[in-house]
Each structure stands twice: as C-alpha cells, then as structure tokens.
Amino acid sequence: MTARIIDGKAFAVALSKAVASSTAAIKGAHGFTPGLAVVLVGEDPASSVYVASKARETVAAGMNSFEHKLPADAPESELLDIIARLNADEAVDGILVQLPLPKHIDTNKVLGAISPDKDVDGFHVINAGRLATGQSSLVPCTPWGSMLLLKATLGSLSGLEAVVVGRSNIVGKPIAQLLLAADCTVTIAHSRTRDLAEVCRRADILIAAVGRPEMIRGDWIKQGATVIDVGINRVPAPEKGEGKTKLVGDVAFAEAKEVAGAITPVPGGVGPMTIASLLANTLTAATRRRGLPEPTDFADACARLMA
Ligand code: NDP
Predict the structure, then answer these.
(1) pLDDT attached to residue 296
(2) pLDDT of 307 higher than 70
(3) pLDDT tens-place string over residues 272-285
(4) What are phi and psi of 152, to 5 degrees?
(5) Dihedral sign, CA of 240, 10, 269, 258?
(6) How many Å apart are CA 54 and CA 23, to the nearest integer?
(7) Which of the ends of the chain has fewer CB neighbours closer than 10 A, N or C?
C-alpha cells in the first residue's frame, strides 16, 4: 500500500484564496481593511525570510501589512512599547512577534503583553486557556493548519486514537487540545515516554512535532494511519553535491508512505499551511474585535475549493 500524499501546498493556496475572498467581502460590507503587524528583533536570516513572506502574503490577501524591525540589541522595554502601541492601534487586528527572540528578552513577558484579542499566533496564556477549556480562542497557526489537513483527509475524527509526539506550547500541546476537541482519544508522547514506537503503533492519527530528522520509522506506524509530519529539519544532502542540504521531517517518509493511509510530505505538507492560517486568524480577530459575524468556515471553504 502506498499512502495518499496530503498536498499542503495546494491546500494552503485554497485557504489563502478563501481568506482573500472573505477579506474582500468584509471590506465591501463594513468598509475596513484588516491589518497584521509583524515585529522582528534582530536579523536572523530564516526569520527575516519568513517575515518578508508573511508581509507579501498579507498584502496579496487584501490586508494591510505593518512591519516593525528592531536591532538585535534593542532593550526589552522598546519591544514592549511597540506592542503597547500596536495594542491601541485601531488599524491593527493582529500582532505577531517573530520568535525566537534574543536571549536578553523574556519571551513569555513579551507574548503576555500582546492583547489576547490581537494574538494571532495564539500563544498568549489567555488563548491557551480558552483553547484548553473549549472556549472561543485564537488558535496557534501550525496546529490549526494541521487540523484543516486532517479534517479534509478524514472527515470526522470522532473516536480515533491520536498520538502526538512532542509537547511544546506552540505545536504539541495545542494540537493535542484540538484533537481532543474533535473527539479523538489523545496520547501526548515526549522525550521521557517509554517505548515510543509501541505508543505510536496505536495511532490512527500520528502527529510528529519533535524536531529530530526522520526519527519516526515506518514500522512505528499502524497500517492505514494518517501521519502529519510537523517537523522541519535541515540535514546534509551529499547526493546533491558537496556542502548541499535538504529539508526532512521527523518521519522517515520513504518507509512511512508504504504503511500509512495518508501522509504529509516535508517540504510541502504542514509548512505551507502556517502563513495561510495566520491570515485566517487575522481575519477572525478583525471580525471578533468589531463584533461582526465570524468569517467563513475555512475548513468547509477549503474542502470546497479542493474538491
Ligand atoms: P520543541 O523543541 O519545542 O519541542 C520538541 C518536543 O519533542 C518536546 O516536547 C520534546 O520532549 C520532544 N522530543 C524531543 N526528542 C524526543 C525524542 N527522542 N522522543 C520523543 N519526544 C522527543 O519543538 P517545536 O514543538 O517548536 O517544533 C517541533 C518541530 O516542528 C520542529 O522540527 C520545528 O522546526 C517544527 N515546526 C514547524 C512549523 C511549521 O511547519 N510551520 C512551526 C513550528 C515548528 P520534552 O518536552 O520531553 O523535551
């Protein structure tokens, strides 16, 4: 059996289209343009590329993009001042502080300073708490995008055994909460889990969010399972030439696709969904803050566009 490959790239294009058309409808009906502010501290090359593509895609979706760049040695107080200004700015619906932050800045303090209603990364403790208690919240982008892929692949997830490998606040824990909310039976595994391979073999849905290249082997996967590989790892690729590298996931893809029912590739799976999910969150934040009806059900809109 060879798994169906879940095309996150195509799905992200569909989601971005759904967001753009919803943005246009909201602009037409209510006369405002949603705005996303991204704050970057320092010049980490990967973060700079990521921030530039967020800005490009925000504008492509018909929203306003605001960028704030601070030098790597900017004091924490300067970053907190910018966040306070953005919290108060009516033109800003979403605020994202690009992580990681330099070591002299307290990340939790910074994330906690963002207004929960504008917290489009969904990392504020208020949003984490709302998610955990089943209340309306802004949900972290990568977990939310992963759930859209799962729902489009499986339809109802009710009653399925889900195993999430990884328990970070930004990926593992929120994905586990979303799976629980979708009526899965959820196990969260981590570096202290005993016999991880055996735990993974129970999974109808296996989520890998570890950050270790190809750690999850084909024989850890139940026949027909759906595998979502969140991991992004850069590894040497001598087959491409000296000094070359390539991206791989946390799952040994070539082995896993012979066993799984469906699987996300790396690259081209979960990764492309993240920015599209961020734009969807910005639109949701914009409508909620103004007391307007929620934008389209993006899961349905995407499924229709993908059909
Ligand atoms: P973290 O490093 O914060 O968390 C990794 C988790 O994996 C931890 O809970 C850790 O356990 C667990 N872990 C580490 N080693 C093992 C092991 N040998 N066996 C079992 N569990 C283990 O990573 P993130 O959650 O931030 O990211 C995970 C991956 O997802 C990374 O590759 C990252 O690049 C990628 N990512 C991709 C995104 C995207 O697609 N857009 C967005 C965000 C992340 P413990 O808690 O016990 O230490």
Answers:
(1) 74
(2) no
(3) 999 999 999 999 99
(4) -70, -30
(5) negative
(6) 16
(7) C
> Which residue bears the tokens 């073999």?
201
Among 62-71, 232-241, 259-268, 295-304, the minimum mean pLDDT is found in 295-304
Which residues, judged by CB distance below 6 Å to any ligand atom, belong to the binding site of ligand 1?
Answer: 142, 165-168, 170-172, 189-193, 196, 209-212, 230-233, 270-271, 274
Q: What is the mean pLDDT of residues 141-149?
A: 96
Give mean pLDDT, residues 30-55.
94
Pairing between β-strand 233-236 and β-strand 245-248 as defined by DSSP bridges: antiparallel
What's the gap in Å between 206 CA and the centre of ligand 1?
14
Return the domain boundaries, the chain: 33-116, 141-263
Per-residue pLDDT, 306: 65
Instruction: Residue 113: name the closest of 76, 142, 145, 144 by CA.
Output: 76
Q: What share of the chain is helix, strand, coil (3-state, %, to 5)?
A: 45, 15, 40
Centroid of ligand 1 to alpha carbon of 168 (angstroms): 6
Closest CA to 306 of 58, 61, 8: 8
Under DSSP, is residue 62 helix (H, G, I), strand (E, B) or coil? Answer: coil
Is 54 one of the annotated active-site residues of the chain?
yes
Determine the CATH number of domain 33-116: 3.40.50.10860
Identical fold, 33-116 and 141-263: yes
For residue 305, name the pLDDT band (cuts at 50, 70, 90).
low
How many angstroms separate the alpha carbon of residue 84 from the centre of ligand 1? 31
Ligand 1 atom 18 nearest Cα: 191
pTM given for the model: 0.96
| Residues ≥6 apart with Cβ < 8 Å to 46 | none
Identify whether 98 is a catalytic site residue: yes
> Catalytic residue at 121?
yes
The answer to whether the CB of 6 falls within 8 A of the CB of 148 is no
